[in-house]
Amino acid sequence: MKQLHTTLGPKSKSELGMILPHEHVFVDLRTPDQPGYAEAEIEDVVRLMAPEIERIKKLGVTALVECSTGGVGRRADIDLAVSLATDFPIVVPTGNYREPWIPEWVRHASEKELEAWMLAELTEQIGETGFQAGWIKLNVGDDGMTALETKILRAASRAAAQTDAVIGSHTIRGRVVMDQLDVIEAEGYRADRFISIHTQEETDFAYNVAVAERGAWIEYDHVGRGEDNEVAELVIKALEAGCGDRLLLSHDRGWFDPALPMGGTPKPYTHLSTVLLPELKRRGIDDGTLMRLTHDNPFEAFAR
Fold first, then answer.
1. Tens-place pLDDT, residues 109-120
2. H helices then E strands: how many in the chain?
3. DSSP H stretches of helix in 32-146
4. Is-contact 225 272, C-beta < 8 A?
5. Which of 35, 108, 131, 172 is the most buried (most CB within 10 A)?
6. 3 state SS for 188-199
């Protein structure tokens, strides 16, 4: 039976409802060599972010996917603390961001060492947290993969192939997504276990469809950040193109930022529930389709 691997342990589909597939609890976009990188008091993060979690719990959201990975301040211990404080499961990734957010140890590690690291986090635990990584999060350059980013992707593909973990990548251009899928398949893994994060940034809609037709997930994660009418129209366009079984929706919002005083001011994870879904329903999208987009698809994408 497939399960979602979370901070609160594995969760079956019957235990879950709506899932937000791309959010952040804690992010540090400074590079890892900067003073104070990824440093924060856990209680400060809980104080700021627990109310945001409680808001979406009241709206029926049952889990979210943390998309902060290595290189941009992943703090699995903080995710766990927020999760325990709210009794709310969070799915945390292994993997690493793109250059120049790559720590020195990742830069110098071999493919086998990177594969072993990701595999251990997927099958044992992240650090001393007691819970497993739920997926692999990567990022590549907007105009194509560097040699280092390709090395990380190859290692990720091998670790994922042994665990059925999904690989998600912050990738702006559709043609680069296609290149990533070529690498994944060359390593013996499958396109249907890949998420094209920020698909909306590829303005050539034909690439959105091509990625979905190849079997990968496409993710429109600008809900509440993009103009509501345009977001709704894009979702409907994807549904009409037959992409509904491969489409994910989220906000890419939050978060506690240790570079800002007291972590800054988080942006809520509520817009999908309170604005976009009602708007899609008003435009004729039926409840079954909305359930698929917000319940079924996120579980199928991330469960293993």
1. 999 999 999 999
2. 12, 11
3. 42-58, 76-86, 104-108, 111-123
4. no
5. 131
6. CCCHHHEEEECH
